[in-house]
Specification:
The chain is built from 5 helices and 19 strands. It has about 300 residues and is α+β, with helices and mostly antiparallel strands. It folds into 2 domains: about 130 residues, Diaminopimelate Epimerase, Chain A, domain 1 (Roll); about 140 residues, Diaminopimelate Epimerase, Chain A, domain 1, CATH 3.10.310.10. The protein has an 8-stranded mixed β-barrel with strand order 1-2-4-5-7-8-9-19. The radius of gyration is 19 Å and the shape is globular. The two termini are about 40 Å apart.
Length: about 300
């Protein structure tokens, strides 16, 4: 699978980070928060090492907090990406701890401003929402080359079957596959076929996250997720947003608050008629720590003393 930094080098130079970190998860989707520093460079290989669950700290990605509340985000494969709903909300819990319990924050990621609200805390568990801004739907939203989709919004899957796909951007690209809910169209086995096929399809300039979705009630749906740079994942905040936007923009659900249930749990996603999106759900802190001086030295490439 191509790294997200290709085919064009569209990201600034990689930052250098502190060894100190914070770890949290949103419904099992875990992220590390690092601030800028002088301890280790966030190269592709180093990000892979730190995210590795056996050779590093282990996580589904890294959120980097830079001066002025500017953010950078990296996947476990080392590639940089636009944004993560869970990463943003985990960052919100970190900022709450760091700033002596301020309840809202404005951060900038991918050139956009995102408003984070901490609605409450119970022990290690936070209730956090992220105002994700205005989503867009359609091929142009995900930089899709013309010709992939039929005029009715369908595409042929890897087995030649017809997929009903809604392209959505919520600051990062998604292809939402709307199913009839049957076992043949909505299952982990089906995800394992369709996910890798669509996630790095040659018609996509920068890849996309892929979801299978089935509607279960007028304000509820289920989703399975294949994430760009990660693979199958049990939950994803931006995927929850994309699924809700796809169903509203295609007229399958009415605007309002939609509960999106994934294998790891449920988020609520508010979607207006104009496709303004708010993601809300739980975050749990796990621990704070530091990379060992030996690991940081190895990541810098310093010779052993």
């Amino acid at each position: 699978m191509p790294t997200h930094d290709s085919p064009t080098n569209r990201w600034p130079d990689r930052p250098t980070l502190s060894a100190a970190f914070y770890k949290g998860h949103g419904l099992g989707n875990d992220y590390l928060v690092f601030e800028n520093g002088e301890d280790w460079p966030a190269t592709e290989k180093n990000v892979q090492t730190v995210c590795d669950r056996h050779r590093g700290v282990g996580s589904d990605g890294i959120v980097v907090l830079l001066p002025g509340n500017h953010l950078r985000m990296f996947n476990p494969d080392g590639g940089e990406f636009e944004r993560s709903g869970n990463g943003l909300r985990i960052l919100g819990s970190y900022l709450w701890r760091r700033s002596m319990h301020v309840e809202s924050y404005d951060v900038r990621v991918g050139g956009d401003e995102v408003h984070l609200i901490i609605h409450g805390r119970d022990g290690p568990r936070y209730d956090v929402s992220a105002e994700m801004g205005r989503a867009t739907a359609g091929g142009e939203a995900v930089a899709l080359d013309p010709g992939l989709f039929e005029i009715d919004g369908t595409v042929r899957g890897p087995d030649g079957s017809v997929l009903s796909v809604v392209p959505v951007s919520v600051g990062n690209p998604h292809l939402v596959v709307v199913t009839d809910g049957s076992a043949a169209t909505f299952s982990e086995e089906r995800l394992a076929d369709v996910g890798p096929f669509l996630v790095s399809h040659p018609a996509l300039h920068h890849g996309a996250n892929v979801q299978l979705v089935r509607v279960t009630a007028p304000d509820r749906c289920d989703a399975l997720i294949w994430e760009r740079g990660v693979g199958r994942t049990s939950t994803s905040g931006t995927s929850a947003c994309a699924v809700a936007v796809a169903l509203v923009s295609s007229g399958r659900l009415a605007p309002g608050v939609i509960t999106v249930t994934m294998p790891g749990g449920s988020f609520t996603v508010g979607v207006t008629r104009d496709l303004d999106v708010v993601l809300r759900g739980p975050v749990e802190e796990i621990f704070e720590g530091r990379l060992s001086s030996e690991l940081a030295r190895a990541l810098r490439g310093d010779p052993e003393s």
